[in-house]
Amino acid sequence: MTTFAHEHWSSRFAFLMAAIGSAVGLGNIWRFPFIAGENGGAAFVIIYMMTTLGIALPILMAEILIGRMGGQSPIGSMVRLARQHKKARLWAVIGWGGTIGAFVVLSYYSVIGGWALKYTTLAVSNAFAGMDGEGSGALFADFTASPLTLFFWHTAFMGINIVIVIGGLHKGIERAVTTLMPLLFLLLLGMVVYAAQTPGFDQALGFLFKADFSKVTAMTFLTAVGQGFFSVSVALGAMMTYGAYLDQSVSIPRSAFIIALADTGVALLAGLAIFPLVFTYALAPGAGPGLVFVTVPIAFGQMDNGVLVGTAFFVLLSVAAITSAISLLEPAVSWAEEKFSGGRRTATLVVGGACWLLGLASVLSFNDWSEFYPLASLGVLDGKTVFDIFDFTVTSWVQPTVGILMALFAGWVLSREDVMAALGVTRAGELWFRLWLFAIRIVCPLAILLVFASAVWPDFV
Ligand code: PFF
User: Fold this and answer.
1) How far is the CA of 266 from the centre of ligand 1 (A)?
2) What digits encode the pLDDT tens for the residues 165-197?
3) pTM
4) H helix count then E strand count, the chain
């Protein structure tokens, strides 16, 4: 089998920035705060940290490892490794499932990324000034009700993504992430420092860190696992692709740990940036998906430096979304590069263009198709728009399935010696290695099966 020679990261720093960039996204700044808000705050935060460390992190290591051992796109790597180990080609489903899953996620992720871009322009032009809850709700409703406006911003977001990915690993992705990620950290720290001086900061600290376990149910665990998978970017082939570009000399366990830690740190800091504003202006912490786009702008409209703080916040959100979107596009692009001889530019334009087209279904889900529930006639997923179905299917089904398979493949199919060598396990690290092996062979697959069981039989938990 011919192998395609992909570029490699020029440094460990570049890889880490790209991988952290992938992990840190809308999942941290938009989704985590409202999920934590809806699930009672601190108790959820603690459970989230446990499941991320115990389940998402071991799989993240497995995914990067498989990528590095395969050296190709997720599909190419899986076909190759399955063949090398004389295993059924069926294992390639990990590559296909991840790549298609990432493609579908990107199609709607780009629509929400477009919202972040649009809200940046609103913040700059002081559009939130003096707004109350009703005004903010109406602003958001008017915006999402217009297919043309959403179309425009979705196109802008996907366009930026395509331009970066066309540039290739060094001149495109690395250049983008090594400038954008430091900017993201700076903006986030600035936001937290600002929020720390508002009267609602103490209340926010209590909300995020003082746990009330009485609200915890089995569902809390399941929500935490799902959120962790999405947030750490596992099981969609993104990290596998980034692993394929990684030199042997870089430690995978250490990198995976840094990535998961940075991702969780950013989610917490995002909470510390957002909730003080929510409490200071007596807004609702459990406001759901509208938290960032409806609730928080009210605070920007009322504070003294609203234009500055609001702009910083939405630039932060846009940057986080773009560096994640890059990693969602790369798995399919790297596959197309291997498969067809058209070169990177054509591969990116075709894959990105197709994804943009698919995104139009999500654009319409917020207006013309908002009451179109395509699967209702089959008796499933009634009340869910195309956007909802994409999100639900990938995060609840594709990601957990691919996650289990990745864990099993790394744990049971790859030879223990190869894996130890690839991870550079030393004598001192042997205990950690055994723990990891136990996690991916048994704990992670079982834990994810539990997620499934509860999805299929809600009464199970
Ligand atoms: N981790 C990203 C976020 O939190 O927004 C989303 C994501 C990117 C998920 C890449 C999966 C992935 F492969």
Assistant:
1) 14
2) 999 999 999 999 999 999 999 999 999 999 999
3) 0.95
4) 23, 0
Distance CA 218, CA 216 (A): 7
Name which of 210, 235, 226 is nearest 327 in CA terms.
Answer: 235
Which one-letter amino acid corresponds to residue 112? I
What confidence tens digit (pLDDT) does each residue in 56-76 have?
A: 999 999 999 999 999 999 999
Q: How far apart are CA 196 and CA 186, in angstroms?
A: 15
Is residue 401 lining ligand 1, measured as CB closer than 6 Å? no
Domain ranges of the chain: 12-57+91-229+259-392
Predicted complex ipTM:
0.99
In contact, 204 and 271? CB cutoff 8 Å:
yes
Taking phi first (over 0 means left), then psi (-120 to 50 degrees means alpha), and beta for anything else, what does residue 163 get? alpha
Cβ neighbours of residue 302 under 8 Å, at least 6 residues apart? Answer: 130, 131, 281
Q: Which among 166, 62, 165, 152 is positioned nearest to 113, based on CA atoms?
A: 152
Q: Is 25 in the pocket of ligand 1 (CB under 6 A)?
A: yes
CA distance 156 to 154: 5
Q: How far apart are CA 158 and CA 88, in angstroms?
A: 36
To test the ligand 1 pocket, which listed residue (327, 394, 399) has its Cβ within 8 A of the most ligand atoms? 327
Query: What is the rounded distance in angstroms from the CA atom of residue 95 to the CA atom of residue 338?
Result: 14
Angle at 253 between CA 247 and CA 254, to 5 degrees: 85
Residue 40's CB is within 10 A of a number of other CB atoms, namely 19
- Residue pair 81/69 in contact by the 8 Å Cβ criterion: yes
CB–CB of 55/228 below 8 Å? yes
Place of tokens 């916040």: 313
